[in-house]
Structure formats: C-alpha cells, structure tokens
Specification:
Elements (H helix, E strand, L loop, with lengths): L4 H30 L6 H13 L5 H18 L3
Helix pairs in contact: 1-2, 2-3
C-alpha cells in the first residue's frame, strides 16, 4: 500500500476507473454478443456509441464494430 498522500489518491482513482472501465467492457461485449436480429441492432449501436463517446474505445473502432455487426445481422436474415 502506498504511504504518500498523492499515491493513495492515485490508487483510489485508478481503482475507480478500472471498475468503471470493466463495466463498459462488459456492456460492449454483451451488446455485441446479444445482437442477433435487426430489431436489436439500434440498441447495440447506441451502446457502442456511448462507450466511444466516453473514450473507452476509439471512434473508428466503434464505427468498425457497428459496421461488422450490421453486416452480420443482415447476412443472418432469412432470404
């Protein structure tokens, strides 16, 4: 455990950020995995956008994920 006051504060902050980032990571994975139909697609895309807005993932990665997700949903649609 840190002894210096600033190191104690830094440890608290990093633990909080880690917990918050883990929530974002789980939400992202869940949104991508659960999306199977076109009806679920907007909710997943919204989640991806929110996570990108906070800076957890880059905006280009968010765009790539949404694109691949849309492509996967479209290809799974019965013809």
């Amino acid at each position: 455990m840190p002894i210096i006051k600033s190191a104690i504060k830094a440890l608290k902050q990093s633990r909080k950020k880690r917990a918050h980032n883990l929530l974002k990571k789980r939400a992202l994975k869940a949104a991508v995995k659960k999306t199977k139909t076109a009806k679920q697609l907007p909710k997943a895309q919204s989640t991806i956008d929110k996570i990108a807005k906070t800076g957890y993932i880059h905006k280009n990665k968010a765009a790539r994920l949404k694109s691949r997700l849309a492509k996967r949903v479209a290809s799974s649609k019965p013809a």
